[in-house]
Amino acid sequence: MPLWKGRFAKELDPKTNDFNSSIKTDSRMFREDIGGSVAHAAMLASQRIISPEDGAAITAELGRIREDLENGALDFDWNAEDIHSFVEGELTARIGDAGKRLHTGRSRNDQVAADLRLYLREACEEIKSLLRKLQKALSAKAMEYPMAIMPGYTHLQRAQPITLERHLNAYVSMLARDIERIDDGQKRMNISPLGSGALAGTTYPINREMTAKALGFDGVMFNTLDGVADRDFCVELASALSLVMVHLSRLSEEIILWCSWEFRFCELDDAFSTGSSIMPQKKNPDIPELVRGKSGRVFGDLMGLLTMLKGLPLAYNKDMQEDKEAIFDAFDTVRLCLDTYIPMVETMRFLPENMRKAAAGGFINATDCADFLVGKGIPFRDAYKITGEIVALCIKTNRTLENLPLAEYQALCPAFDKGIFDAISLENCVARRGMRT
């Protein structure tokens, strides 16, 4: 029976009930809903708003309901309006009038706001743990190839020599910022809305600080309308998760390129690749491709939240029921991607010989050639022009800077001497820049 049944004379149309119901989405918050209700019941009993006996009965039975849901002894009623009405209905069916007293001094508006904050708080911890595991996997992979030289790119053109370690650790740094952003969002989210009621608080002498402390919140919401209407934390976390997916997608794009025959910088383990139904030679990087594609899904969740919120007057509106589908999907998608990505990175194999060959063939030591001339007293712009002429000569004669004879260097600029070959050694180019991490 709906919690609001008393006002209405007719039964709700079945299709309307299904459309209105959110239990298929919010049932995953049953632990948080029960935990919030336990804290609320303890506070009500402490404040003598309900009897200690009713408080004890409510707390004990809520514990049994949670246990029954976890072990499968109790199934969700998918006809219930939401997880709150399901739990309260089950509680009342088991202990009678005491169960009906649980909702005293509380609304589903502040209840769901609290449940969602509690649920997302744990989800954030899980995502941060996975991000740290991916950081560890990338760092460990980099350490397998501590001096593997590869081309660094700008505009997807070979630019300057770097190490694989430096390249992979760039993503470690990105993931560190992702963790910081989630941490930051958690701090603002970890404030209790309980006591806001539907929007204007309650006339009962409740103790908001007691429930906040019991549930691990850092404080209570200052304004009761904001307490029930605020979903900034969903937007902030969806934004942080979107940036996680941007970083995963960028790395995925590089892995996809590096696995191609045109690059051949790395190879994915067979356990994380698929083949073609018609082309026997194919080994497709499906995992990074799917991650790259799923980034758009998380971006869509963020845009859905922003669009849902942008025109809502205060305080609670039914539109806000859409918040959970979007933010849950964002967390689920990022979790799925990270769970798959981490072992893929752990098992991928790099091909340093191919990377070194690509670095040698792209004139990525040209800046070092110009810097050599600067060291001989030639202005940088003149040195730049001379080096460009040397590169053009190498391209025309199908040679590299390393194997161009000294005499031909000197024909273009007498300041060159045999030290040029040490200056343009890829290993020395990297070492002079400290290009390891």
Structure description:
α7 (108-144) runs antiparallel to α8, α11 (232-259) packs antiparallel against α12 and α11 (232-259) packs parallel to α13. The protein has helices spanning 14-20, 23-26, 30-46, 52-71, 83-95, 97-100, 108-144, 164-189, 208-214, 224-229, 232-259, 286-309, 322-347, 352-360, 366-375, 380-397, 406-412, 420-423, 426-432; strands at 149-154, 157-163, 266-267, 349-350. It is elongated and about 100 Å long. It has a two-stranded antiparallel ribbon with strand order 1-2. Strands 3-4 form a two-stranded antiparallel sheet. With 437 residues, the chain is mostly helical. The model has no long low-confidence stretch (mean pLDDT 94).
Read across the widest sheet, the strand sequence of neighbours is 1-2
SSE pattern, N- to C-terminal: HHHHHHHEEHHHHEHHEHHHHHH
Our count of helices gives 19
Spans of at least 5 consecutive residues with low confidence:
none
- Give the N-terminus to C-terminus distance in angstroms: 62 Å
Strand content: under 5%
Largest sheet: 2 strands, antiparallel
Shape: elongated
Secondary structure class reads mainly alpha
| Helix fraction by DSSP (H/I, runs of at least 4) | 55-70%
Total number of β-strand segments? 4
Mean of residue pLDDT values: 94
Gyration radius, to the nearest Å? 31 Å
SSE map:
Elements: H1 14-20, H2 23-26, H3 30-46, H4 52-71, H5 83-95, H6 97-100, H7 108-144, E1 149-154, E2 157-163, H8 164-189, H9 208-214, H10 224-229, H11 232-259, E3 266-267, H12 286-309, H13 322-347, E4 349-350, H14 352-360, H15 366-375, H16 380-397, H17 406-412, H18 420-423, H19 426-432
Antiparallel strand pairs: 1-2, 3-4
Helix pairs in contact: 3-4, 3-7, 3-9, 4-5, 7-8, 7-13, 8-11, 11-12, 11-13, 12-13, 15-16
